[in-house]
Amino acid sequence: MSSDLPRELAEQLSTTRFGREVQWHYSVGSTNTIALQLANDGAPEGLVVWADHQTTGRGRHGRNWHDSPGHNLLFSTVLRPSLPTELTGLIPLAAGLAVSQAIEIQSGLQTNLKWPNDVLINTKKVCGMLMEGQISHGENSQVMVLGIGLNVNQTEFAAEVESKATSLILESGQPVSRPALLAELLRCLEFRYDQLQAGDYDTIRNEFELRMTLVDASISVSPTATTMPTEGVVLGIAADGALRIETVTGEQRVHAGDISFSPLA
Ligand code: BTN
Questions:
Q1: Res. 261 pLDDT band, cuts 50 70 90
Q2: Ligand 1: does its nearest atom lie under 6 Å from the Cβ of 149?
Q3: Which residues contact 184 (CB under 8 A, 6 or more apart)?
């Protein structure tokens, strides 16, 4: 079965690498799984695996990512960053910025970022990202896949996420063209990624901080589902992309995790 979506994307694409090669599917298990396989087989940077529906979409921390078929953006991009390994935590921040800007350009909606890479509208999550891989094939040669799930034209959510999730159509009242949004998103992503590759780390960090929710808020952050949460007040982002929080024992840096409002807040 063919679709007009890849052609509509190609007509609007203004990138040099990201999305120049697209593998499109009506339905797959997970675009990240396919992209990881292709990346390990030598796929070029910027290759996009794009699906209308995922049957086993993956979220962070082992969660599932559900979608309403044919309504959202679900895709994964192959990355081959030449960043120092300790700075790869900046990639999700750069991607968050890219998604945030693409949404604002295409829909006019105001977005915020929740560390490390959730995009929110009116405090509800509209987009999540999952970066996987980090397979080192020698110094400065890593292969990764960045998976992005963006709720575009979905109007109903399961009861358990209804209060926390939203979509562009729910927020703006207008349907959004998915190929146009993806073309803009890939343009912003390529721009931000190139900024990182060029060593402009401070711009990514500073702009992320400007769009970040929860600065000065009391939060609780759990690095994994089974570790004890750290509680403190958000100070900002460290040079390597870690979250800086002020705890009762002083400043701590968190490199991965899920933030929730602290019960003490
Ligand atoms: C999260 O917020 O938990 C991350 C969600 C990431 C979902 C995207 S959808 C495209 C790609 N394929 C997957 O299986 N997951 C990511």
A1: low
A2: yes
A3: 102, 105, 106
